[in-house]
Batch of 2 targets.
Target 1
Amino acid sequence: MLGNQWYAVLPMRSVGRRPVPIRRFGSDLVLWRGSDGAIRCAFDACPHRGAALSRGRIVDGALSCRYHGLSFADDGRCRHIPAHPSRDRSDLCLRMFPVREARGLVWVFNGHDSSLPELPWTDEIDAHLQSDGAPTLDITDRFDVSYLRVMENLTDYHHVPFVHRGLVPIKPEVTRFEAWREGQHVHTEGAMGGLEAETDIYGPCFAVLSFAGTARFAVCATPIDEGNTWLFARYSQCLVRFPGLTLLATWLLGQFDYRLLQKLQDAPVWRSQRLADPADIRRYTLLPADQGVRLYFEMHAELAS
Ligand code: FES
Ligand SMILES: [Fe+2]
């Protein structure tokens, strides 16, 4: 899992009045709303004797540990030690992560770069995703596979007539396929059996897909740990635009793509892929239609070095 990256970790609405435990990029984290209502993130371990801070509560805008009541301010500094109110507190500080709230999601930067990069889901990407102001549908879930299996699948169109045989009956020959990479952006587009598809990947875990120019979705595949992935998908479509039916059509698209295609049909194949190291694809024999896979892993290796 790559350091110094922004990762979407949870919908903003999932963080309310109580601390929330999550596991992301192999670490146990706690999210909570500070005194100003903004979401904070720290390792979920009290610097006193290691109890999970997510078992605590928010008292007067400070995160209070359940075990001995030490409380921590918005910047992670210890504000109060109930057993020793006048003791020096400077050695008791939480290990905090930079946080942003955007697109309805909580984003956590798993590093300590002083100059934080822009979020991968930029305003331009958002405008493209919802260019016509259509309603969107959000789906969150988790998969028991590495995020790399999910990401590589997003640029791969030639699995469709096989993995999704019963649901998307198209001819298997790829009649057009192009892929290029610019820094942390990988673009692929192709056509097969009359189906046109386009994918843009930004960084290790975020992608925007478009099918037949009418169905679009954004995907965040955030590592929980080496072998598990937290997935967020936001769907929109512009094929059906009748009042009252637009939302239903978007909901059907999300259910069809996510529940039937990805969860029921893609995920068992992802689980079956055998790689000792999920990031080491040297055992793959890549075809021209896998050019997006090659470029994605090339970018991933660069980010890891
Ligand atoms: S372990 Fe948190 S206050 Fe003691
Ligand atoms: Fe698929």
Target 2
Amino acid sequence: MKILSAIKSTVLFLLLTLVTQVGGVVYLCYKFIAALTLKKGSASTLFLKKLALFLLLYVIVSFVVVPPIAKHFGRVPLQIIANNKFPLQPRNLFYFVCNRHYVTPELRSAAMQIALDMRNNKPKVMLQYLDACFPFKNGFPLFPHKSHDDGEKLDLCFLYKDGNGNRANSPNFVGYGACELPRSGEKDQAAICEKQGYWQYSLLQKIISPLNATDHVFDEVANAKLLHRIAKHKSIRKIFIEPHLKTRLGLDDIDKIRFHGCGAVRHDDHIHIQL
Ligand SMILES: [Zn+2]
């Protein structure tokens, strides 16, 4: 039983560290405090008390302890709730609850300026972000991304309309995996990569696409404007989208917009920007 318990604790520690960076350390603190204080009661009461203790510790660490320490590592959190002054917010709670919304002050400022620009000019849109980086330590990867490890990378949602022509969020609540596929005659980079053996290239699409809303339409005009505005910003040095979208949106002359390589995943479901 002790071995099973140790395996369970190790798996939870690794999983929480992989997904949230600080969750593993919070789990160790929770185990220590729980062993000292939570000993009596029925199994169900103990379970609820332990869960409440872990969540309380996680919230305190994530929202009170982490932000000031992250500042010393040169990282700041992105906006959580958008308003007219900061019109940028995460696609869903997961990204900030899991501490995946930290960037350098330069990237935060660039993202805010781009978001404000998109909010104040036609078409007026509210930008949403997906994964950014963790709060601490260059080189600590943000699973499953290969490159989001230094505070200088951020993924943004493309812009969509619903069946009635109104502004809409990305077609699923995750934000990834709803791909704007190549049309006939357009370059199919995903097929090229998969032919070369890069099986992971469209993996997210295959897993998540059943969740997609079916009436959402990729807004070509708004996305072309967004990408022009991102490319115009002097702090942003690289932008990754799929080659067929670069051509379709008339962006072939923008050198900052590049192909990310077959070793990554497809980028026709989100925009990757970096310093
Ligand atoms: Zn990215």
